[in-house]
Amino acid sequence: MSSNIDYTSPSTQFTFDVNNSTLFKKDDQNFINILGVEQLNTLENMSLLDIFLSKANVIEPHYHQNAAELVYCISGSAIVSIFNPFTKKIENYPIKPGQVANVPQGWWHYEVATEDDTHLLAMFDAPTPEVILGSDILRFTPSNIMAHTYCLDEKQWKKTIEPIVPSTYIGPPKDCNRVKSTEKQKDPHHKPKQKQKPKHQYPQYMNPNPSPYHYPYMYPYGSYY
């Protein structure tokens, strides 16, 4: 029991409806509700995020500078991916209902829903879960610093990060249109190669190598699959 809380005050709160405290909403299937000391003033060293995701939606890469995070799966399924700063590897932890993944304080991580109607509860050992988001790091770090530090073309870097929306929280954005940046598009005389038929034809529902994405990008789950 904390000595800093006046438990006799009429303003002291002991209950709260988390459904009325939305941190971020992408759409009706993808949103985050928050509970911290600002919502419930008797909380001490704990807080939570109530997370709802549809398949292939991502809680963007981020870290919590003030708290460790315990991710509990209520329904659906997800992969919690954590960068281990000691092994320099991304570790991927699939969780289903009743399973958890633990993220130490300050570790870079992200979560990807692998089913529709995924419901995650993220719990923190701090009264408010502070966060630094990957989208904010990319957009707000000066382009000249990024270009100079990593020997990049500054104009190309600016063009690359231009579509990034600060504080994305849940990606990809609703208006996502992936840009195909190839030299072949610049050549009006380029003729695309004809696709060769595979030796064995499979009906679509029997595809031996199914992919959850329809565009040629790497799995966000790292090397798990």
Percent of residues in helices comes to 10-25%
Silhouette: globular
Distance between the termini: 46 Å
Number of strands: 12
Q: Main β-sheet, in a few words?
A: 6 strands, antiparallel
Strand order of the largest sheet: 1-2-3-10-5-8
Give the helix tally: 3
Beta content comes to 25-35%
Order of helices and strands: EEEEEEEEEEEHHHE
Low-confidence stretches: 181-185, 197-225
Q: pLDDT average, as an integer?
A: 84
Query: What structural class do helix, strand and pairing data support?
Result: mainly beta
Question: What is the rounded Rg?
Answer: 22 Å
Topology (SSEs and partners):
Elements: E1 22-27, E2 30-35, E3 47-53, E4 58-63, E5 69-75, E6 78-84, E7 89-95, E8 100-103, E9 109-113, E10 118-124, E11 132-133, H1 134-140, H2 143-150, H3 154-161, E12 170-171
Antiparallel strand pairs: 1-2, 2-3, 3-10, 4-9, 4-11, 4-12, 5-8, 5-10, 6-7, 6-9
Report on the structure:
This protein is mainly beta and 225 residues long. Helices cover 10% and strands 29% of the residues. The chain contains 3 helices and 12 strands. A 6-stranded antiparallel sheet has the order 1-2-3-10-5-8, with no helix packed on it. Strands 4, 6, 7, 9, 11 and 12 form a 6-stranded antiparallel sheet that branches. The termini are far apart.
List keywords for this structure.
225 residues, mainly beta, six-stranded antiparallel β-sheet, globular, disordered C terminus
Brief overview:
The protein has 225 residues and is mainly beta. Helices cover 10% and strands 29% of the residues. The chain is built from three helices and twelve strands; from the N terminus they run βββββββββββαααβ.
